[in-house]
Amino acid sequence: MQVARWGNSLAVRLPAELVRQLGLKEGDNIELHPDATGLAVARRPRPEEVLASLRQFRGRLPAEARLSRDQAHER
């Protein structure tokens, strides 16, 4: 891969095979971080994926596990 100038920033084009493996689409956010073999690329969850994972917990707390506002702010 080659690093190129894109406006005032630097950019890298990802190979098509990597894009397919990560399931990337235009507009996705990725994270790059160093690892033992060089650089690791990970796709951050899309907003709809985050919402879907949160929806699975809706209404799952037993009544005795819930806190009232007063209990939450006790000192």
Can you describe what's shown?
By secondary structure, the protein is of the alpha+beta class. It has a single domain, classed as Pemi-like Protein 1, Chain: D, CATH 2.10.260. The chain is built from three helices and four strands. The chain has helices spanning 16-22, 47-55, 69-72; strands spanning 3-6, 9-12, 30-35, 38-43. The strands form two sheets. The chain has a two-stranded antiparallel ribbon.
Quick tags:
single chain; 75 residues; alpha+beta; Pemi-like Protein 1, Chain: D; two-stranded antiparallel ribbon; 3 helices; 4 strands; elongated
Q: What's the arrangement of secondary structure elements?
A:
Blueprint: E1 3-6, E2 9-12, H1 16-22, E3 30-35, E4 38-43, H2 47-55, H3 69-72
Antiparallel strand pairs: 1-2, 3-4
